[in-house]
Design brief:
By secondary structure, this protein is α+β, with helices and mostly antiparallel strands. The chain has 3 helices and 8 strands, in the order ββααββββββα.
């Protein structure tokens, strides 16, 4: 989590998921490349050529890239609103639309509560991060109090 106080910009990224996903991605590439190199021919008489070996290594790289999508979530909050980028999609929500920043009991991540019982999940603030998530929620709520129109009403 990064807070730039001069511009009141808050940047939040998940922490613990990065500690798990990055080594998993590296392990996937290493395992698939090692298997591709060692897999020349088997006792069954099946022959694996260079194309097969390359394809197996490419599958490992593709799986590693697919696993890295879990470290993509990010929140950037400033005077204009909150930009939420989850695993695949992102959106910018102006402060005027945000009724509350909440973290429901038992939820895996926080959310921005919008009018008419709608909400935007904030995957960057995960329960798994413990104290870092608490601090991130506090900072985001402070910006909400500062910039939301009619936040105290």
């Amino acid at each position: 989590m990064t807070v730039t106080s001069a511009t009141d910009t808050l940047v939040i990224r998940p922490h613990k998921v990065r500690l798990v996903v990055i080594p998993v991605a590296i392990a996937l590439v290493v395992v698939f490349v090692v298997v591709a190199v060692l897999l020349k021919s088997g006792s069954t008489g099946v022959q694996f050529g260079a194309v097969d070996q390359f394809s197996l290594a490419a599958i490992g790289v593709a799986l590693a890239c697919g696993s890295l999508v879990f470290i993509r979530p990010r929140v950037v909050a400033d005077a204009d609103g909150v930009e939420v980028r989850n695993a695949l999609f992102g959106q910018k929500v102006p402060w005027a639309l945000i009724r509350a920043v909440s973290f429901p009991d038992g939820a895996p991540w926080a959310r921005l509560d919008l009018p008419q019982d709608e909400y935007v999940p904030v995957v960057a603030i995960q329960a798994w991060d413990g104290e870092k998530a608490v601090l991130a929620i506090r900072e985001l709520r402070a910006l909400h109090r500062k910039y939301a129109v009619g936040a105290g009403e």
